[in-house]
TrEMBL record:
Family membership: Belongs to the LysR transcriptional regulatory family.
MF annotations from Gene Ontology: DNA-binding transcription factor activity; sequence-specific DNA binding
Signal peptide residues on this chain, from the entry's feature table: none
Keywords assigned by UniProt, alphabetized: DNA-binding, Transcription, Transcription regulation
Lineage top rank: taxon: Bacteria
Lineage, uppermost ranks: Bacteria, Pseudomonadati, Pseudomonadota, Alphaproteobacteria, Hyphomicrobiales
Domain HTH lysR-type: 3-60
An annotated GO BP: DNA-templated transcription
Name this polypeptide is given: LysR family transcriptional regulator, glycine cleavage system transcriptional activator
InterPro entries assigned: LysR-type_TF_proteobact-type, LysR_HTH_N, LysR_subst-bd, WH-like_DNA-bd_sf, WH_DNA-bd_sf
Length: 289
């Protein structure tokens, strides 16, 4: 018979914690995942482990017997893990785009580490949207309007983006006097492919008929494409500082940017309850805001 250690350890943690909610918090998963693992053991072995009521859960006789057999073994494993490995509760794994990590996150994390040396931060700079429910990521930093169904979004900052174009492109297609004029041009998307649609939405513009160009790997490549005249781009000012200074790109359409169009710290609600995660998010809100 295959021994499903993860399910058995989940049972051990639930029995020790007394509630599935506390066990979910300790293991960094959803209460639903806890229920599924317990149900898997019960179905596999054909007996109930807990009785459930409005007042919570209690071990059945079979559950008490199983927990008695497992307790010493898992307690020794937990002790060894705590002795030889860093406490997982004090590690926060962050996913952010390469551009955000380069321009804002690295310096802020440096200051955070000086203030909170016990909390270790691991940054994965990748230009894709991670799945917080299935991947070992605690916190994702996303750009948009903060609308993340089923997830917690904390506003971090709304740095100025530059609407940039090459001089030759503007000569060919004419000036840009309003956000609506951007629809006359090919638009270069960011790595998510959503930046322009969100930008138009924030300005109350129907962009159904917008024309999009090539999606590149990061903001620096998109800036190069914009300077080559491939289309308009919405870029972090860090990426276009040199191109603006040399005249390869022109900043067009000075507008007041909606503060909702910003960077957000996105987490599962139960993950936010971990002190290390909430401490980091609150730090970033204060440091970057």
């Amino acid at each position: 018979m295959v021994i499903r250690i993860q399910d058995l350890y989940t049972f051990h943690v639930v029995a020790r914690a007394g509630t599935m909610q506390e066990a979910a918090h300790e293991l960094g998963v959803t209460p639903g995942a806890i229920s599924q693992r317990i149900r898997a053991i019960e179905e596999r072995h054909g007996f109930r482990l807990f009785t459930r009521s409005k007042n919570g859960i209690m071990l059945t006789e079979a559950g008490r017997a199983l927990h008695s057999d497992l307790h010493d073994a898992f307690s020794r494993i937990e002790h060894a893990n705590g002795k030889h490995f860093t406490n997982r509760e004090n590690i926060v794994r962050v996913s952010a785009t390469t551009m955000f990590a380069h321009s804002l996150l690295v310096n802020s994390i440096g200051r955070f580490s000086d203030t909170h040396p016990a909390i270790k931060v691991s940054v994965e700079a990748e230009d894709r949207v991670v799945d917080l429910r299935s991947e070992p990521i605690d916190l994702a930093i996303r750009h948009g309007l903060g609308k993340e169904p089923g997830l917690r979004s904390d506003w971090l900052c709304s740095p100025e983006l530059v609407l940039a174009a090459s001089p030759l492109l503007l000569e060919k297609y004419g000036p840009i006097d309003s956000p609506h004029d951007c629809l006359k041009f090919t638009l270069l998307p960011d790595t998510t492919g959503k930046d322009w649609s969100i930008w138009f939405e924030a300005h109350g513009i129907d962009a159904t008929n917008a024309t999009y160009g090539t999606k590149y790997g990061n903001g620096f490549l998109t800036a190069k494409a914009a300077s080559d005249g491939q289309g308009l781009a919405l870029l972090n000012d860090v990426c276009v500082e040199e191109s603006l200074a040399t005249g390869q790109l022109i900043r067009v359409l000075d507008t007041t940017w909606p503060t909702a169009f910003a960077y957000y710290a996105v987490t599962l609600e139960e993950t936010f309850q971990r002190p290390s995660v909430s401490t980091l998010i609150n730090w970033l809100k204060k440091d970057l805001g």
